[in-house]
Amino acid sequence: MAGPASLILISVFGTLALLGIPLAISITAAALAAVALVAPLDMALFTSAQKMLASLDSFSLLAVPFFILSGVMMNSGGIAVRLVNFARLIAGRIPGSLAQTNIAGNMLFGSISGSAIAASTSIGGVLVPMQAEEGYDRDFAAAVNIASAPTGMLIPPTTAFIIYSLVSGGASIAALFLGGAVAGLMWGLGMMALTSLIAWRRGYPVGGRTGWREALRITREALPSLMLIVIVIGGIMFGVFTAVEASGIAVIYTMLLAFVIHRTTPLRNFPSFLLETAQVTGTIMLLLAASAALSFAMAFTGIPAAVTSLILGLSDDPVMVMLIINAVLLVIGCFMDIGPAILIFTPILLPIAQKVGYDPVHFGVILVFNLAIGTITPPVGTGLFVGASVAKVRVERAIRALGPFYILLFAILALVTYVPALTLTLPRLFDL
Amino acid sequence: ESLRFAYASNATPTKEAMAHFGELVEEKTGGEVTVQFFPDSQLGGERELVEMVQGGLLDMTKVSGGLMESFSPVYGVFSMPYLFDSQEHFYAAMDNPEVTGPVYESTRDDGMVALTYYDSGARSFYTKDKPIMKVEDLKGLKIRVMQSPTSIRMVEMLGGSPIAMGQDEVYTSIQQGVLDGAENNEFAITIAGHGEVAKHYSYDVHTRIPDIMLISTATLDRLSEEHRAAVIEAAKESTEFQKQAWNEAVEAAKKQSEEEFGVQFYYPEVAQFQQAVQPMYDELAADPEKQLLFDAIRAAAGNS
Amino acid sequence: MRALRRALDIGVGAVCCGLLAAMIAVLAWQVFSRYALNAPSTFSEEALRFGVIWVSLLGAAYSTGRGTHMAVDLLREMTRGGVRRALEFLVPLAFLIFSLAVLVRGGLHGVEIAARQTSPVLQIPMGYIYASLPVSGALMALYSVLNLVDLVRDRRRLPDDLERMIIAGD
Ligand code: NA
Ligand code: NA
């Protein structure tokens, strides 16, 4: 059963997706085709509809629209400038100051807004031109911005882990957030180290000292925005509230910031933020629902079991198996976006990883790390395209400048994959 | 012909009984009918599985009797606290076709009927900070209950704050203090690992809610008379098989809870709890169908 | 046609905004009742779960109008003229088939099955929850027809990958 079913599934999905049919529809059609092999079409239609609805019926999912809304409101006014100033304060004395500022800014902004694209446009949009003016190579500046933007997908709050938690059958969101924070920090600090090495060899300028009075002012301005990270991570870490409650608190806190404390935007803009949130939520959730229909179709026709025995047939050595899984994920990440990739491949790959002794939380971090790399690699890499266009350099040139960064990222990925203690120590310390 | 049978997560004796059911069907039909299992929520949660049986995509499933209340209200009677006096009374009532027959048939117009039940043990409270020795101990405690109106009502009557949430969120919620405790059989301590966060298990034995095995009416109609009889017979025999395995497994779980998880067991006076939920029985009279089932079950108490 | 699109946008948009605002209030109440009053609300969790379902599916319909659902644009970007135009037409057509077959037809089957179920806590008919599928499907179908008409009149081009990503904020 698994043989013909997987053939039909892959060919229907591949053909429709290539023709430019929206992914959610291509996915559902593939699911329908596979189930229709063994059941009447009408039944397949009902089951797909039922699976779509059931996948949306989850309390944890509530965190998705709420974290999106707080990100949308955060993006709306003046916080990019505040965070750039603060990032310069902490990273401005390292060789390649402006590039370092860009990395730190992307980590902070990406964490808060949860969007790599928003980070690379608003932080890179300010810092790449400044670097060009100070004599940095424009391709290099673009590469630094592109390579550091995805850190926000790992540093919490992040919707990727909420979605993973759901499809993994309940891996703790809180534990994923902490594990992801460590992986995201490793990514960001790694970029900083490599950047300072390149900047030092090329003799890029080191920024001047900031007076303490100025430093205090900058910190005070950035503090309310930074508090969001502290509230979310701290609250979850010390068990004050759950991830879903954290998302609600993030929304209310961001509303206070936008409408009362910073007053960056008038209250009458609130409905437009809500509308944007509903729209983004709608696209993510339709994909999630479609993927639920697909993973049902796969389970029903026995595909995950077949893939498991296929991969474990090649090797049952954990190091080899994870090498294969990572290679598969990197290829998937080259062609697919992060959300659908998590939804479709978790049910297939997680059981294999678990069979060779991997913890679901650890595997979630590996998965998201992998797919986050995929957003900045050719041929399909939205982070790559957006970053190149923000810096006004051709994509090919950005790719060439990204070379050493890719190599470093693979090295960090290997560390994250083969040293479980890196991701699991912190969550275990806090009993999550 | 192969019957598609899906279920969610379960205690080991129940899983074994379902596997045994599969073997029996094959044996009795000389291999003409086989059962294909989809275990461990592979195809979805219990509500979805029941709907798939109704829709005809699945032939069979097995779910908690508590869930069945939202498909057919009369099942709610099984969730009533202190309905059964003992395990013997429970078996005597559930094995009596005059008691269970009308309930099993109540969903026929919705495209499914029940074939048999499995013992799912007695449910009691287990808590994080202190044992429940009397009703007052429950006052203000946040207790997780199944998503069943009767269970919610019961905890309210006992003075606790019922929170209906999914089983998979219970562990972290107790740990983070979002919940003070929950109520379930002993397997929640071991299989779900709740013994790591809740150390007090108080045997107030408030409910014995049976698991229910369902089959689609379309499947029954499709089977030949001979095969249909074989499936029904196999279901009944698997229930007897499950009874044998159940008590042994509960004892093992209890032992494991004490030794591995350091859980303490308490035996509060039950009468006071029975008293507190009395109004629920007065409310029952409003629904004649429920009252009928209730009377039949109580009548079986003397026979056991 | 334009008036119809505008009316749809305003209607669906307003319901989405209202639902989201209400959900913020309910979650705030849940957190408050749990921590400040130490008497957790029993209804909020179920209400919020149902809210997410409706907002997600209505939001999906709204996004259909905007054309912001994720797709692979490789082939479309590579082609010109008649082929490209044909590929552009495929999108609203696929939406039309998907929404009518899966969401409306499959969803109505679900409504029928769920009609006699009630939700455990709020005791509302589960049919109201399942109804989100056909309702959103019908809206999606309407939007797809409008998109199709606009394509025929050449009044509108599909947003490209980049545009969609920026709107989707991912
Ligand atoms: Na983030
Ligand atoms: Na890529």
From TrEMBL, chain A:
InterPro entries associated with the record: DctM, TRAP_DctM
Main localization of the protein described in the UniProt heading: membrane
Record-linked Pfam families: DctM
Role according to the record: Part of the tripartite ATP-independent periplasmic (TRAP) transport system.
Subcellular location: Cell inner membrane
Transmembrane intervals: 6-39, 59-83, 103-128, 140-167, 173-200, 221-240, 246-262, 283-307, 319-349, 361-385, 405-426
Ranges where the TRAP C4-dicarboxylate transport system permease DctM subunit domain occurs: 13-422
Protein name (database record): TRAP transporter large permease protein
Family to which the UniProt record says this protein belongs: Belongs to the TRAP transporter large permease family.
Subunit structure: The complex comprises the extracytoplasmic solute receptor protein and the two transmembrane proteins.
Entry coiled-coil feature ranges: none
Recorded topology in the membrane: Multi-pass membrane protein
NCBIfam families with a match to the protein in the record: dctM
4Fe-4S in keyword set: no
Keywords: Cell inner membrane, Cell membrane, Membrane, Transmembrane, Transmembrane helix, Transport
Automatic annotation (TrEMBL), chain C:
Protein purpose: Part of the tripartite ATP-independent periplasmic (TRAP) transport system.
Signal sequence, renumbered to the chain: none
Subunit: The complex comprises the extracytoplasmic solute receptor protein and the two transmembrane proteins.
InterPro entries membership: DctQ, TRAP_DctQ
Species the sequence originates in: Limimaricola variabilis
Membrane topology, record value: Multi-pass membrane protein
Protein's recorded name: TRAP transporter small permease protein
Origin: domain of life: Bacteria
Membrane-traversing stretches: 12-32, 47-65, 86-108, 128-149
Keyword Transport: yes
Localization annotation: Cell inner membrane
Boundaries of every Tripartite ATP-independent periplasmic transporters DctQ component domain copy: 23-153
A Pfam family matched in the record: DctQ
PANTHER family, per the entry: 2,3-DIKETO-L-GULONATE TRAP TRANSPORTER SMALL PERMEASE PROTEIN YIAM
Similarity section: Belongs to the TRAP transporter small permease family.
UniProt keywords, alphabetically: Cell inner membrane, Cell membrane, Membrane, Transmembrane, Transmembrane helix, Transport
Keyword Transmembrane helix: yes
